[in-house]
Amino acid sequence: MARAIVYTEFGSPAVLHEIEIPDPVAARGEVVVRIEAAGVNPIDAKLRSRKRPSPDITEPRPVGFDGAGVVDVLGEGVEDFAVGDRVAIRDALGTYASALAITTEKLVALPDAVTAAEGAAIGIPAGTAYQALRSLGVTDGDVLLVHAGSGSVGQFAVQFAVAWGATVIATASPSRHELLRELGAIPISYDAGLLERVRDVAPAPVTVVLDCAGTDEAIETSLALVADRDRIATIVRGPDAASFGIRAFSGGSPVPLTEEELAWRAEALPKTVELLASGDFTIELGPELPLAEAAQAHELMESGAAPGKIILVP
Question: Which domain of life, per UniProt (predicted)?
Answer without folding.
Answer: Bacteria
